[in-house]
From TrEMBL:
GO terms for biological process: transmembrane transport. Its main location: membrane. This is AI-2E family transporter. Pfam families: AI-2E_transport (PF01594). The chain crosses the membrane at residues 12-31, 37-57, 69-88, 149-165, 205-233, 253-277, 289-309, 315-333. It is a multi-pass membrane protein. It is found in: Membrane. It comes from the Bacteria. Belongs to the autoinducer-2 exporter (AI-2E) (TC 2.A.86) family. InterPro entries: AI-2E-like (IPR002549). One of its GO terms (cellular component) is membrane.
Amino acid sequence: MKRLTPDADDARFIRRVFLVILIGALTIALYRVGTLLILAFGSVLGAITIHAIAERLHRHLRVPARHAIGLAMLAALAATGFLIWLLTAQFGAQINALIVETPQLLTRLAAWMSQSAVGAKIVEAVQTGYAGAQATQDLGQIARGGTDAVLNTILLIVGAMFFAIEPQRYRDGLLLLLPRGKRGAFGDAFDDLGRNLRLWLRAQIILMLLMGTSIGIGLWLSGVPSAAALGLLAGMSEFIPYIGPTVAMLPALGLAANTGTGPLIGAIVTYAIVRIVQDLIVTPIIQNRVIAIPPAITLFAMVGIGYIFGLTGLVFAAPLLVAIFALTHSLYVRETLGENTDRVD
């Protein structure tokens, strides 16, 4: 007898319940390992950068493809080491000066904001939020955060090397998980994704170099202390659109205000001119082939990703948004809706 065997309707209901439970469990699991997945995405960006360097070595210097990958890895490691050297040996004193000056600048900023009713409320809210925090706890969090940052950086670099050595292996492995009839569409989508990320990275590196150089020279001419370190900070912050440059501008304006009225006016003019020229002239030229994402969507998406996944999510929010738009464009707009759209070359 099979008196407890569910009928067809009950069986369908049970399958749906299990499917909902499975989706919920996967969502929770993805959220718990979200930072790790974002680091894996960062490693993919690193692998794309390595392959872009290798392609140029292979095309212009006739270096064999396998050897070009190795040379590109060495070049990427050398660039990373050079950046660390700049941050420590060359600009270490200036960066330390920034760190030492920051508490005084924040105190002056709080005093200035407290002159108005709204500003006083903001200062009070911030102070209340940090009230009761012990210095040892704060130092412990900073130490743990620094250790995590070092470990995450090492993991990202090693992962990028593994992805760069055999990218086709990982791509084909993902395609094997899909139904045979869908692999062609997803393969084209992955190719479009790689091209969009490569173009975005190239444009972003150019913008970072231009921003850092322009801001550094402008602040130096304005007489602002630590101009080289501030220029380096401005260039690196360009990797996080809108939010990064705004945050990087605050210590520069604070140091300029602490120096005098002339340097402050010069710093404001420098940032205004560089930002206007970059947003209205340079960026449209450099990013003319990069997938277009409305600024408002970029800003709110970055804030949302940063809120969920913390600083790591905020750092990689912009390229992650490019990836989401590229996959949506390829898989939904073109393959599902059938819209005849141009592919990225």
